[in-house]
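Appendix C reproduces, verbatim, an entry submitted by the partner laboratory led by Prof. M.T., so that reviewers can inspect both the input and the predicted structure.
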Amino acid sequence: MAKYFDVHPANPQPRTIGTVVDSIRSGALVAYPTDSCYALGCQLGNRDAIDRIKSIRNLDDRHHFTLVCHDFAQLAQFVRVDNDVFRAVKAATPGSYTFILPATKEVPRQLLHPKKKTVGVRIPDHVVTQALVSELGEPLLSSTLLLPDEEEPLTQGWEIKERLDHEVDAVIDSGDCGTEPTTVIDFSGDEPEIVRHGAGDTSRFE
């Protein structure tokens, strides 16, 4: 059964955040809120949890996982960013955007797009998510909590606990965080490509 953590949305309890992060370091798969919707998250090298995310979401090997980062300095360790892209990404973060960029050698091979060698990265504007990745000290490997054959992500912690009680190890509830996933911008080509229209304004990339 998944552990259930009720976390204050504006002032996350440090002890609770520490407990969740300890469980992530020990191999846990967690459902947690972001500034767009709920996500599934685990530690970078956790192959078992990655396989569980793929199973829960029915994903294939072409799926772009996302590295949820604390700040731009951390993000730049895992993807290659030239000057033009730097300015565009910097201006849009923190926020409800995921950026697809060429990965550095810091990213485990199984997380890369098999052909492009890219990975998704984002810096969320959400107090609880920021507390998690800050305490973890590295990006949180994540994927939107969108179940197969459903049009919208799950948004309520109690419902996630009920439906995924035996598939995740922990659920963090800090109130409703919306149903719209991030806007996804692919910067791996010559021009930015809007892959998914979501919570982030796309006008600056059009």
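Helices lie at 14-25, 47-57, 72-75, 83-91, 127-136, 157-163. Additional entries are available on request from the coordinating office.
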